[in-house]
Amino acid sequence: MKYRELINKMTLEEKASLMSGKDFWQTMDIERLGINSIFLADGPHGIRKQAAAADHLGLNESIPATCYPTAATIANSWNVELGETIGDYLGKEALAQKVNVLLGPGINMKRNPLAGRNFEYFSEDPYLAGKLAASMIRGIQSHGISACVKHFAVNNQEERRMSIDTIVDERTLREIYLTAFEIAIKEGKTKTVMSAYNMLNGAYTNENIHLMREILRDEWGFDGVVVTDWGGSNDRVAGLIAGNELEMPTTAGETNEEIIAAIKSGNLKEEVLDECVDRLLELIFTTEEVYKQPQREFDVEEHHKLAQKAAEESIVLLKNDDHILPLQKDKKVAIIGDFAHNPRYQGAGSSIVNPTRLDNTLDSLNDSGITSIGYEPGFDRYGKNSRKKINKACALAKEADVVLLYMGLDEVTEAEGLDRQNMKIPQNQVDLLSALHEVNENIVVVLSCGAAVEMPWIDKVKGLVHGYLAGQAGTKAILRVLTGAVNPSGKLAETYPLRYEDTPSYHNFPGKEVSVEYRESLYIGYRYYDTANVDVLFPFGFGLSYTSFEYTNIHVTTEGVTFNLTNSGEMAGMEVAQLYVGCQSTDIFRPKKELKGFAKVFLNAGETKTVLIPFDDKTFRYFNVKTNKWEIEEAEYEIMIGASSEDIRLVESHFVAGTGAPLPYEKVKLPSYYSGKANNVSVEEFEELLGYKVPDSKWDRTRPLGYNDTIAQCQYAKGAFARFSFHAITFAHRFLWKIGKRSTANLIMMSVYHMPFRGVARMTGGIINMPMLDGILMIVNGRFFKGLRHVLRERKKMIKKIKVEQPLARMEKEM
Ligand code: BGC
Questions:
Q1: DSSP secondary-structure letter at 311?
Q2: Which pLDDT score is estimated for 743?
Q3: Which of 6, 71, 119, 225 is the most buried (most CB within 10 A)?
Q4: How confident is the model at residue 808, as a pLDDT?
């Protein structure tokens, strides 16, 4: 242990005190030993440091910072150098705001297009997500502070996120849900990892020995700090045993006492605590080093420019019929759509950034070279129908050569804590598009949203530019793509299915009351559509350019693959070339192809470059559940180079010697997995894959409610008061939604409805403690007066304790 000497000087109480926050954002300090607090702040695409009132819901304003494009957007750049630069700039801003740990990037897999935080995550592919995350982490940590990769792991939905048990087979866990984390940890060398709220195969991730000890620490060699997600600690001692150093936010010392009691009773070895303290001290000391020198303000203008560059590389051109784009200079353009005036540029929740400035399309038109003949909002942002708005927009469209229609999802629809209800763009926007199409067929849609949407209206548009959530400088970047000042080079990091019903997890999302079963196994995103031959709207890896690229001369060696890439068009541009690998043996089920490498290459018109994509330890491996190890199957592999997952340009066969492991499965028992048609797997077949019976997915309504049951379960509580409260909450939600107070309504769902009872104590910073919660639960379970007396008695005790402890602490400090 590095800090043995220092730890030896600490009392048991002092050591335990370090294991949870001092307040909402800071760690505990021990003045007499020179241990300072360090500051943790969101977030993934810009700093959210709250100087005054603190919360994890994005409610209270934070200090202004650059709002870069969100992860879902950056992923479309497929550019790891850009990722590192963004990380570097985030790091500079973190320094200016005196942040020690930046709570990002988020790298959970996009298992389902409706998952509410998809805008905050990179991709449906672990390799791409891992590489981008690692690059961002390197950038952030180059400043001596820490990134914090989150949410570890298998946190792929918002619905009941603090209690849901995700049931995943071991191979899928390793190959799909953990690989991005593995890359972020081994290649990005993140100093901090945030555990997820959910359970994984029966144990909270923060207490999950298999995840936290066996994989994270023992296999991957992670020696940094694990912090809980805010309010996500369940059993503090179990978390500590699994290697959780820091519980956030503060519990006003309550869980420190649990640690002390466990040590005193012999249930926990002091050595375990010491190891956690040692690792936390390393994080504290290393991330405060940089602050020994005075820190400079960051250059707001320069950072805004980087946000624009990042957006320019991430915008995806999805359709360009009749070469409607780039817009010709002399064309008269009608600008239509509320998003042109009021851009949609980031998501809602804990990642929300208070931008240093915010560009909007209308203000940027003058410099763009576009000849605008006017603007009409055309629709109400939150879905209300308005014939008048449509008529006005059509009148303007009639006068134009080209209509630029800004469509998208509003910020209430894409929010942390809530999954989307459907994959549609609001109907009033689609109605507007249909009406516009009647009067002018030259329509270019600019889309702003952070996740895949259905587009049954696609035939009505000639051009489609997807800006995703492009950050504070995004609108200018989009204009530059529209005019051809920038040649688009973004490619989709997720598949766009034709209909939501086509998605592989359609039947198993967001799961039932207790659990969600990942029955589709490895087949998420393109791995499913491609293998099961399901047509999609836009495949993974797809994106158009104003130029064209030719692929020739593939050559495969044991080291990797080389090929020639030529810009065969008239304009300089960048191409994202993708390496996919498919195994020709059918002994072990697999997706038809999987992404194993990529390169973003700049080429002038007419230029040719030889591109090398090296193989690595992930190119041929699969996780064998019999040997419990990564293995290689001896077989011929197809080495494919593509412009997207569907558009494969070059193929070569390549033999790879295997590791000789026994076959892990009995083929006949897993027909859906071997055929890849895994969108509706029976429970029996899923259990065969898992190797055990799935737990009951319904709430046990006969049991009294406990710490880990959610407020929503009050609907069947014994106590009339609890049932009444449940109805009051649902009524308030519905009422607020109806009168248009949608973000407040969302807050009820996020912070009350799905909150487990323990969260009441964990998130109130000591105002309600666990003994008081016991009283609340008595009320919930039908013992109203006994419960109320208990709450009042415990509250009295708590106040008395504070009165005794505070003067004592003051005296100790003064001595
Ligand atoms: C989110 C985390 C975030 C934390 C602090 C949680 O609700 O899940 O991503 O870092 O709050 O704001």
A1: H
A2: 83
A3: 71
A4: 63
116 and 158 Cβ atoms separated by less than 8 Å: yes
Closest protein CA for atom 8 of ligand 1: 229
Number of helices followed by number of strands (H, E) in the chain: 25, 26
- Residue 348, both tokens: 């809602």
CB atoms within 10 A of CB 559: 9
Q: Are β-strands 203-204 and 199-200 bridged in parallel, bridged antiparallel, or unpaired?
A: antiparallel
Measured between alpha carbons, how far is 683 from 667 in angstroms, rounded to an integer?
17
Which residues have a Cβ under 8 Å from the Cβ of 707 and sit 6 or more positions away? 234, 756, 757, 758, 773, 777
pLDDT tens digits, 343-367? 999 999 999 999 999 999 999 998 8
- Name the one residue in this structure whose structure tokens are 């997706």: 591
Residue 53, pLDDT > 80, answer no
Query: Which residues have a catalytic role annotated?
Result: 229
The amino acid at residue 252 is: A
Query: Which ligand 1 atom is the nearest neighbour of the CA of 56?
Result: 12
Q: What is the CA radius of gyration of the chain?
A: 27
Question: How far apart are the CA of 56 and the centre of ligand 1, in A?
Answer: 6
The residue whose CB lies within 8 Å of the most ligand 1 atoms, and thus the one to mutate among 25, 121, 350, is: 350
52: pLDDT strictly greater than 80: no
Cis preceding linkage at 153, omega within 30: yes
Ligand 1 centre distance from Cα of residue 179 (Å): 22
**Residue entry with tokens 């059509």:** 394
Residue 573 β-bridge partners: 603
Picking from 524, 653, 645, the residue whose alpha carbon sits closest to that of residue 78 is 645
Cβ(165)–Cβ(202) under 8 Å?
yes
Tell which atom from ligand 1 comes closest to the C-alpha of 48: 12
Strand partners, 24: none
Ligand 1 site residues, Cβ closer than 6 angstroms: 42, 56, 103, 150, 229-230, 350
Q: At what angle do helices 770-780 and 720-738 cross, to 10 degrees?
A: 90
For residue 151, the CA-to-ligand 1 centroid distance in Å is: 9
The answer to whether residues 587 and 633 touch, using CB atoms and an 8 Å cutoff, is yes
For 537, the 3-state DSSP assignment is strand
Centroid of ligand 1 to alpha carbon of 65 (angstroms): 18
Q: Strands 648-656 and 635-642: what pairing?
A: antiparallel
Separation in Å, CA 702 to CA 52, 206, 245, 781: 44, 28, 36, 11
- Supply the residue whose CA is at minimum distance from atom 3 of ligand 1: 350
